[in-house]
Design a protein that fits this description.
Strands 2-1-3-4-5 form a 5-stranded parallel β-sheet, sandwiched between helices. The protein has helices at residues 2-21, 46-57, 73-87, 98-102, 107-123, 141-158, 189-206; strands at residues 25-31, 61-65, 91-95, 127-131, 161-163. 51% of the residues lie in helices and 12% in strands. Strand 4, helix 6 and strand 5 (161-163) form a beta-alpha-beta unit. It is of the alpha/beta class.
Length: 207
């Protein structure tokens, strides 16, 4: 009898433990080099620093960093179905578009891809956020405005939360940038972490 009870408890432990281990908020981050810790060790990037902060606070939030350096909206769209199936996120944060702009891709195509990313995520019952992206001014005022306006348009049409670009307070400070003047350095990562901590908190509270 005692052995049967112990066996039952052990089986329940195996079944219940994985369920309890799943975070209430699992955030899939679809980003490019700005979120993939380009030029740095992974543990130095803002995503890992933010996860460490959540863990220290015992916050029920897990960050899944699916960011890839050089990623475009089209590339992420081709990967999304598999990521949604694998991780079953409750939230999807899209930090994409910079590489579309830097390569001069048509804004309309980027808009279509971003819309599809959001709609696929929403169809998988994930709350969505879209980060507004800016590109260097040397692309001309007309293209730059069309590019940035796209993010507001997509967020309004899909009811996705629009998040401020996390590089706004960093990009203009050379001491926080790598030698290419495009990517934040190690010193900038804690600042981005703090920015994203506040931005994600507003997003989750809004949901």
């Amino acid at each position: 009898m005692t052995h049967s009870i112990l066996r039952l408890v052990f089986i329940l432990f195996l079944v219940i433990k994985p369920l309890s281990a799943a975070a209430d908020n699992t955030i899939l981050i679809l980003g490019d080099s700005l979120s993939a810790a380009y030029g740095l060790q992974q543990e130095e990037g803002w995503v890992k620093l933010l996860q460490d902060k959540y863990d220290d606070e015992q916050a029920d939030i897990e960050l899944i960093n699916a960011s890839i350096s050089g990623e475009t909206s089209g590339g992420a769209l081709r990967r999304l179905d598999a990521l949604l199936e694998q991780y079953e996120p409750t939230h999807v944060l899209i930090e994409l578009g910079a590489n579309d702009g830097l390569r001069g891709f048509p804004v309309k195509k980027m808009q279509t891809n971003l819309t599809s990313l959001i709609q696929k995520s929403q169809a998988a019952n994930a709350m969505t956020a879209l980060m507004e992206i800016y590109i260097p001014p040397n692309y001309g005022p007309r293209y730059s405005k069309m590019f940035t306006d796209t993010f507001t348009r997509v967020s309004e049409e899909t009811n996705a939360h629009l998040m401020n670009f996390f590089m706004l307070d960093v990009a203009g400070q050379p001491e926080l940038m790598q030698n290419d003047s495009l990517h934040p350095n190690k010193k900038a990562q804690p600042l981005i972490r703090d920015e994203m901590y506040d931005s994600i908190k507003k997003w989750l509270n809004k949901d």
